[in-house]
Design brief:
flat; mainly alpha
């Protein structure tokens, strides 16, 4: 009686792209903190040591993930004035990076810029140079844009939460208004009072103010 050797399907060869893709998938579903070499290896069905043939460390993996996201920012081919082109490029970055919320924290914690990150920054400066802005103004403008060039803003506004009970809320506002009248005036009379902030509109407002300022200085 003949016997056939049992075979198991060969596992697809591991490469850097698969490791980066697994890291991004994990970050997209469970956040950046969940991305560890052990967890990514488990997702890929390999041992952690197998990853080190492709990325030297967790930080290098996150560097590569950031590079992948930034490389995916669409190029805005525009014959419009420099200020419009700059706005379109940054809003394209915001749309791309918003699809991966973990990328905000990852970008802020990187210690070195990879080729895709440098190419994106260079593209912004190229737009500004094409608009006739001076090197000094471009230098200051890039610092002014700060995280906004990546499509997000890091706000530091530690305002206290009001009680949910209407009576307690009214009492808290009354006491708060005595000490901080301008804050209460703003939060109770602004058009967004009592609702959620429109983060897209707020981002575009800040970006437009910056671009308007650069235009005037130019």
């Amino acid at each position: 009686m003949s016997t056939r050797a049992r075979t198991t399907p060969a596992r697809a060869a591991l490469d850097t792209a698969k490791v980066v893709g697994a890291g991004m998938a994990r970050a997209d579903s469970d956040g950046l903190a969940s991305v560890t070499m052990r967890a990514v290896a488990a997702d890929l069905g390999v041992t952690p040591m197998a990853l080190y043939n492709h990325v030297a460390s967790r930080e290098q993996l996150i560097d590569a993930m950031v590079e992948h996201v930034v490389a995916g920012i669409p190029h805005v081919v525009s014959l419009t004035p420099w200020d419009t082109a700059l706005r379109e490029r940054i809003l394209a970055a915001r749309s791309t990076i918003n699809a991966h919320p973990w990328a905000w924290a990852a970008i802020e914690t990187r210690t070195a810029a990879g080729p895709a990150v440098l190419a994106y920054m260079d593209s912004l400066m190229s737009i500004l140079f094409a608009g006739g802005l001076s090197p000094d103004l471009i230098h200051d403008g890039m610092h002014l844009l700060s995280t906004r060039m990546w499509g997000f803003t890091r706000d530091v506004l530690p305002t206290p939460a009001l009680p949910t009970d209407p009576a307690a809320q009214a009492l808290a506002l009354r006491a708060f208004s005595q000490d901080y009248p301008s804050i209460v005036r703003m939060v109770t009379t602004a058009s967004v009072a009592g609702g959620e902030c429109d983060t897209q509109a707020e981002f575009e407002f800040a970006l437009d103010v910056i671009i308007e300022g650069l235009r005037r200085r130019a």
